[in-house]
Specification:
single chain, 134 residues, 74% helix
């Protein structure tokens, strides 16, 4: 696959972000937010035992690998567009391709969250204290 094929595919992927988006159903949004809020309030009050540490770690590691691949692709594209000696923070602020900045930040944040989840799961398994599970 040549460089022009990769550039063309990336341009097609970025153009998909420019399609008009239908407005989400406000009732569904409120329902999802209510469920997330209730789960966020309930979990710290009533922690539950970890049922399968191995499955939890496997799922987290697969998710980390997939997010890492996505981040690697975004970093490669950003390196082509970033100026020599320019910091990543400066690149995110000045880029003319906002989708690339969003992908970089979202993937980095997802990897950080997954790392914390893996740490919490491991602490719960080692100590036997379920309150440390995410």
């Amino acid at each position: 696959m040549g460089r022009s094929d990769v550039d063309e595919r990336f341009a097609i992927a970025l153009s998909s972000f420019q399609r008009p988006v239908e407005a989400p159903d406000p009732v569904a949004q409120v329902a999802v937010m209510a469920i997330a809020f209730m789960e966020g309030e309930e979990r710290p009050r009533r922690p539950h035992e970890l049922t399968s540490y191995e499955w939890s770690v496997a799922v987290l590691l697969v998710a980390m690998c997939l997010e890492g691949l996505s981040l690697r692709t975004a970093v490669r594209e950003a390196r082509r567009r970033r100026g020599a000696g320019e910091s990543w923070l400066s690149f995110v602020h000045r880029t003319t391709v906002p989708e690339l900045a969003v992908i970089l930040l979202e993937d980095f944040g997802a990897l950080a969250r997954l790392s914390f989840a893996l740490a919490g799961t491991t602490v719960a398994e080692v100590t036997g204290i379920p309150a440390s599970t995410p």
